[in-house]
From TrEMBL:
Database matches in Gene3D superfamilies: 1.25.40.390
Any single Gene Ontology cellular-component annotation: cell outer membrane
Chief localization: membrane
Domain called RagB/SusD: residue spans: 233-526
Family stated for the protein in its record: Belongs to the SusD family.
Domain of life, per lineage: Bacteria
Keywords noted in UniProt: Cell outer membrane, Membrane, Signal
Entries under SUPFAM superfamilies matching the protein: TPR-like (SSF48452)
Pfam families assigned: SusD-like_3, SusD_RagB
Cell compartment(s), UniProt: Cell outer membrane
InterPro entries assigned: SusD-like_N, SusD_RagB_dom, TPR-like_helical_dom_sf
Name recorded for this polypeptide: RagB/SusD family nutrient uptake outer membrane protein
Amino acid sequence: MKFNIVSLFLLVLGMAGCKDNLEETPFSSLSKEIVFKDEDGLNQATLGVYQAYTAPDFTDISNRFILTESGHRYATAGIGIGADPYYRFAHVPNSGAFESVWNRFYKIIFRANVVIDNAKLAVPDDESEANPYVAEARFLRAYAYFNLVRYFGGVPLILQEINSLNDTDLIFGAKKTSTEVYDAIIADLTFAENNLPDARGGVELGRVTAGAAKALLGKVYLTMAGKPLNKTENYQKAVDKLKEVTGTANETKYAFQLLPDFASVFALANERNREIVLSFGYFVNSSNPNGNILPFNLFPPGLVNGDEQTNYGLTYNFYKLFEKTDTRRDFTLVEKYVYKGTARTDVQPGDSILYDSVKANYIVKRTKLSLGHDDYKYGIAYGKLAREPRAAGAAVQGYGADLIELRFSDVLLCLAEALVETGKPAEALPLLNRVRARAKATASKAVSAADVRAAIRKERRLELTGEFNTVFDIRRWGTLSEEIAAMSPDQIVDNILLPYTPKLEIYPIPQSQIDANPNLKQNELW
């Protein structure tokens, strides 16, 4: 693969694991002998791996969202014709989203490798003091590879520090099989669960834990059990691992909880709550002026500021999947709201905005005119983020909401799914209904394995849509052809919906990487 080496020194940006408790300590071009001279330097270097998940560029965060949340029966274009070409399956290897996402995760891997290979320099007399930092870096590396293998299949494995441009075997590594990548992920997470604290609090809240490692490892096993690997023996491994973090005693031990109120999980004042298994902090300051771009790109215009773009939509059929009592419905989807933006010719502050399911676009209640394009059908905007205005003076995309990657409700539903696939639907049902009860939805009365399986799959969409899961779920279930068959051409701009082809089961490796690395081969059919 192509790897950009700015220098042979570690860049430690040291973002806080908790926004308001850890100060940023910027370094540039410091040798590793200086960075790793003591435990404080090791700590800052480890925080630099976390920081690589969020800053400073932001476009790949939107691209990650599109690549995991568009391209299924309920996805549409947004008002800004966003998600194109991915939601209609017209992407090609040189599409920019693939390059930006690839680069982000390999930057994370690079930083993690530096910490892993040099941690003992900081505490040479006691390996046990280095291990927790190594475990953090290995967790973060594992999560990067877990994303890469689900997006692109087999990818180059770089498991040691790149010290020189002469390290061509690492810089131009060949593509490994998906199984080899998963083996590395399991090894990293196993080390992490054995060397991290069970839970954290205070200034360390937000840093990964043994509980998070176990939860993620359970999800990895569940993913491997499905398509394309079909390693069905891993369903039981998923059950065993996920049971280590669920149940009253384990949830207390690892500080996990299903919060009683769904919307509060995403509130800015409640970040890093006990339902959040893994998240990455966003804050807006001089070193990270861009913030979290997702509210800007996903909210409907005027929901909180006025310049939101709505680059992604969901169909009204998805809205109708929710029961009227389900507290998730009107938080996940913005069906109506009061316009809070600046005055325009077509809308004024205080106007009521409604989604017209017949026109399939937003209208201004006062004028009955469309807010946005009137020449194609776009979806209801996604709203499952803290609906709070950005800080005064911030850039238009400068929202401070953390990026939530894994919640405890996901863990419960992963365990329920693994139980069904190991022949225990009756044991799975209470887990499903626990998630539904929190949302004030009717308890499922499914009995057969097929019905419980279908209920869990539906529940994953109701609970987790927009949280970097949908496309990955569809792929491991092997239902993409069904998703495309269920799509209607009128939810596609210009009514052009491309047919299913097996190549759509995985994304192409970025063409720029193929061009730069003679040892890297493109995925089949691409």
